[in-house]
């Protein structure tokens, strides 16, 4: 008989806290037993539960500041509930009820009732889906058959990747922890038995073996025995330093005796008065949890209910027996039976007809009156034998509110074409129903060290936002907590030239820059892509002296020309690299083989390896670094810090800022392109210019860029977002103007059609970063026909003139958290059109409306919604009244850009070749006649307030230098006049000169 190995955890004695009056502290803190609430603002409360009463007061890697001015609030305990009320929200907690979950914490804000916390505890004999539990460094994926729930934990490809499940043993004694997993051929090319570490309650884990399965669609179970006391425990499955990982885990279960692996999933209940997410219910039959259609609430929906399917949702806290409205949010497109017709579902046996919707991405609501007893009961959605053939998103119990995300973020848009479906975005801060929980439980402390392990004791740390439609207030709260978006140097907001093609110092010096000057095109940043490297052009660590004979001289030359430069880096090193031996020695021999041929990768969480990595950069002079993640596999073993955030912070310390992807890490394996890591995006914006990856040169990708920029900014507070202007991957095959060698063969660059190029540069002129980039494809104006060249030259010069305005708005973003490029709903949350137009127009700052044209042809048009106010076309002077629609057309020499009455658009008066060498000594301010408004121009040397009162401008400058000013006054009839003023005037009359 094989000897059984057991783990005997330390018995965790839970504190027995009787319900007692909450105690208010002088610093805006309310303590109720093991729960603590810190009132940080009228719209923000920290909720913390510590089973051992040890609350955490240190800053974390996400939350760097909780010093917020004192907020007025009231707190009381009544009928067993602690109630905290501010001017914007009410938060209730049932005293003595233990860790936060759906039925014991309630939020009310702006007419919405919500359960911000969800906690799934897996009792003995219940299926424990890994996506419902804490995860470290692994993503949830769904691209292999046979998994249950919404997917599986993918990868375990790096040290400390893992999942931790909360389980409840029904009785003390011997238990089996059974893991359902798949083990196919890994990213390392191996197909073999793999190992992970199984731990209980923070005690020393032991290694378990997961034998190889036939492929990634084949799931098996592996079992380990443990001794547990009755009650809650934490079961962890982690890749340790000595483990091979590279497996997928679907679920686990805590079993006794001969119990079979369960099919009934553990779930958290849904509170009466809230919207229950269908994907969080117990689903049986053929239905599955899916995400492939847009517009759903929460994290997914239950896909095509058919005969024999059952969805069960337990509802708690029904106040009294009675009949209540229950709203089903559903989509009813063409079903698997080929029919598109009204369908019938049964809700607690009552037949409900669901009319058709336009397609599967169109959602509707049907409401029925359902009898419910007081207290707790189940809502069951079943299908007739003929099948329902619908998708179900939510079940609203006495509510029709939906937790619909506004915007969202994604690590990259690699491969996006605009014709292959919308990229799936991860929701962030903002939702239509006005609340969010920022769960900070698993994040490390600010210095990157993990929080203290609490064993079996439960711990939760989260920030409850209740902002209603005050979205800008929410972004301000987020900025106070997590830090503002990085304010880049002013030159970074100018024009960038970047192309993945072999260039030399002589090319930049003798050919490219002179062409910019000759054709009157500004240039601020030169991006030197990967081919500058010696030895290996992908991951070499020396500059090729045949291409860059004097690296420091090249950088000095760039500075002398008013330029800044960046070098492209891939994070690995070849074993044959001249610097490898030194790097391995500095790393104390810990650099490990990567999946690329003869390459080694770095664990940035290890101080020795991080030092070795950063030292490799020292011999290559540059202003900042472009960390171009691809397929190298370096990462970080730090607990509670996403590797992107950690290494981007290190890059910001050795350069002006990090130029990189964000929100995750390649250590998540082949799934890194789409999903974030659970630690969230909150630290990223403090250091990073987010490079969104390799899109394609298509009209669809051009259009998709419009909505994505503002979606990411609104959901995370990230302001600095950089797309490949023109797209990275060619789709046309049109021959370009340059030739190059590829493995000894002469090849030619490609190019876009002239209309696509002109329109893409127009969009780029109003994005946070204007970075012309491609993969061996022409991006320079003089490489296109005369009309496209003239258009691109005009708009790149306009971008350069707008740098003072953009820099000022970027500085506002750093302080307020409201991103530079933003959706209209941030400024006009009460207008339905502000939500429906996010994919076709955006605001640059609060006062400039941009509606790019994204269709081919010499003349294009777009349908524009004008927010409240009066709007003047920047190019034509035509005036549009707010709360109206208009179809606006434009040739290549103009585009739909509008200035709000009362707003101000400040730009350089003259075209300049770059920002760094050209002081802002002459400014032009566009204003509307008779309006009232204010703008603060931010410059490194001081701020200048520009205040308009009707026909008078007041300029309050804190600067020492003098500037000449020109005011372009736009009138309601579409005409304009110019008022000149010199030497930083104090007061200017805007009346037309006689």
From TrEMBL:
It comes from Lentzea sokolovensis. Keywords: Glycosidase, Hydrolase, Signal. One of its GO terms (molecular function) is hydrolase activity. This is Glycoside hydrolase family 31 protein. Gene3D superfamilies: Galactose-binding domain-like, Glycosidases, Golgi alpha-mannosidase II. Residues 1-24 form the signal peptide. Transmembrane segments: none annotated. Residues 126-255, 274-398 form the CBM6 domain. Belongs to the glycosyl hydrolase 31 family. CDD domains: CBM35_Lmo2446-like (cd04083).
């Amino acid at each position: 008989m094989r000897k059984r190995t057991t783990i005997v955890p330390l018995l965790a004695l839970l504190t027995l806290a009787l319900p007692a009056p909450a105690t208010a502290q002088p610093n805006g803190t309310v303590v109720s037993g093991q729960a603590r609430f810190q009132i940080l603002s009228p719209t923000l409360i920290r909720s913390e539960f510590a089973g051992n009463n040890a609350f955490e007061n240190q800053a974390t890697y996400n939350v760097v500041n909780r010093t917020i001015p004192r907020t007025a609030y009231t707190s009381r305990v009544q009928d067993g509930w602690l109630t905290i009320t501010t001017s914007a929200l009410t938060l209730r907690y049932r005293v003595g009820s233990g860790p936060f979950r759906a039925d014991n914490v309630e939020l009310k804000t702006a007419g919405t009732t919500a359960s911000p916390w969800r906690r799934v505890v897996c009792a003995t004999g219940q299926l424990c889906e890994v996506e419902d539990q804490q995860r470290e460094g692994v993503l949830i994926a769904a691209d292999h058959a046979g998994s249950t729930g919404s997917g599986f934990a993918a990868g375990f490809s790096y040290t400390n990747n893992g999942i931790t499940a909360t389980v409840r043993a029904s009785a003390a004694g011997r238990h089996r922890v059974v893991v359902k997993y798949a083990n196919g051929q890994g990213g390392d090319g191996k197909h073999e038995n793999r190992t992970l570490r199984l731990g209980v309650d923070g005690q020393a884990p032991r290694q378990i073996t997961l034998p190889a399965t036939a492929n990634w669609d084949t799931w098996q179970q592996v079992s380990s025995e443990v001794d547990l006391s009755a009650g809650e425990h934490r079961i962890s499955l982690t890749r340790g330093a000595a483990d091979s990982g590279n497996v997928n885990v679907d679920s686990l279960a805590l079993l006794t005796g001969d119990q079979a692996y369960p099919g009934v999933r553990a779930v958290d209940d849904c509170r009466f008065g809230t919207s229950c997410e269908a994907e969080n219910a117990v689903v049986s039959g053929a239905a599955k949890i899916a995400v492939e259609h847009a517009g759903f609430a929460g994290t997914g929906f239950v896909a095509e209910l058919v005969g024999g399917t059952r969805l069960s949702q337990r509802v708690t806290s029904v106040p009294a027996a009675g009949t209540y409205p229950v709203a089903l949010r559903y989509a009813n497109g063409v079903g698997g039976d080929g029919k598109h017709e009204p369908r019938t579902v049964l809700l607690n046996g009552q037949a409900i007809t669901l009319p058709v919707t336009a397609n599967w991405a169109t959602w509707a609501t049907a409401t029925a009156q359902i009898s419910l007893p007081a207290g707790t009961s189940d809502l069951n959605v079943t299908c007739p034998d003929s099948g329902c053939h619908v998708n179900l998103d939510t079940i609203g119990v006495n509510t029709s509110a939906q937790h619909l995300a506004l915007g969202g973020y994604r690590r990259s848009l690699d491969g996006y074409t605009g014709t292959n479906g919308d990229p799936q975005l991860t929701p962030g801060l903002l939702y239509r129903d006005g609340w969010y929980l920022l769960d900070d439980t698993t994040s490390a402390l600010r210095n990157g060290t993990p929080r203290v392990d609490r064993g079996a004791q439960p711990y939760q740390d989260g920030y409850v936002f209740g902002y209603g439609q005050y979205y800008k207030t929410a972004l301000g709260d987020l900025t106070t907590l997590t830090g503002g978006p990085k304010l880049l140097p002013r030159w970074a907001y100018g024009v960038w030239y970047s192309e993945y093609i072999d260039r030399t110092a002589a090319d930049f010096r003798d050919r490219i820059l002179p062409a910019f000057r000759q054709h009157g095109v500004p240039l601020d940043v030169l991006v030197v892509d990967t081919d500058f490297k010696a030895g290996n052009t992908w991951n070499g660590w020396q500059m090729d002296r045949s291409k860059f004979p004097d690296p420091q001289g090249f950088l000095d030359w760039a500075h002398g020309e008013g330029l800044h430069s960046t070098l492209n880096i891939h994070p690995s090193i070849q074993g044959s690299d001249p610097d490898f031996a030194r790097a391995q020695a500095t790393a104390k021999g810990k650099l490990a083989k990567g999946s690329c041929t003869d390459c080694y990768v770095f664990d940035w969480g290890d101080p020795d390896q991080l030092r070795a990595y950063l030292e490799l950069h020292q011999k290559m002079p540059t202003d900042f670094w472009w960390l171009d993640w691809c397929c190298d596999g370096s990462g970080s073993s730090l607990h509670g810090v996403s590797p992107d955030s950690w290494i981007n912070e290190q890059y910001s310390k050795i350069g002006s800022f990090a130029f990189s992807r964000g929100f995750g890490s390649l250590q998540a394996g082949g799934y890194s392109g789409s999903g974030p890591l659970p630690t969230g995006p909150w630290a990223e914006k403090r250091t990073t210019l987010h490079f969104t990856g390799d899109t394609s040169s298509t009209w669809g990708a051009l259009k998709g860029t419009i909505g994505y920029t503002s979606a990411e900014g609104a959901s995370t507070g990230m302001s600095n977002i950089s797309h490949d202007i023109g797209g990275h991957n060619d789709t046309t095959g049109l021959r370009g103007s340059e030739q190059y060698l590829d493995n000894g063969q002469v090849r030619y660059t490609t190019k876009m059609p002239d209309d696509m190029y002109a329109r893409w540069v127009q969009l780029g002129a109003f994005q946070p970063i204007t970075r012309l980039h491609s993969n061996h494809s022409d991006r320079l104006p003089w490489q296109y026909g005369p009309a496209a060249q003239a258009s691109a030259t005009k708009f790149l010069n306009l971008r350069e003139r707008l740098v003072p305005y953009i820099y000022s708005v970027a500085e506002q973003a750093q302080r307020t958290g409201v991103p530079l490029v933003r959706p209209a709903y941030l400024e006009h949350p009460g207008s339905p059109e502000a939500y429906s137009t996010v994919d076709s127009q955006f605001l640059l700052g609060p006062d400039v409306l941009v509606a790019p044209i994204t269709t081919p042809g010499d003349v294009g048009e777009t349908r524009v919604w004008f927010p409240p106010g009066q709007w003047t076309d920047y190019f034509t002077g035509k005036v549009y009244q707010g709360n109206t629609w208009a179809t606006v057309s434009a040739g290549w020499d103009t585009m739909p850009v509008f200035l709000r009455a009362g707003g101000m658009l400040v730009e350089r008066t003259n075209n300049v070749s770059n920002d760094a060498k050209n002081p802002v000594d002459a400014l032009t301010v566009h204003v509307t006649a008779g309006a009232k408004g204010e703008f603060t121009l931010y410059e490194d040397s001081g701020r200048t307030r520009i205040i308009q009162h009707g026909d008078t401008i007041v300029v309050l400058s804190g600067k020492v230098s003098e500037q000449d000013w020109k005011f372009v006054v736009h009138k309601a009839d579409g005409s304009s006049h110019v008022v000149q003023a010199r030497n930083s005037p104090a007061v200017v009359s805007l009346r037309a000169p006689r």
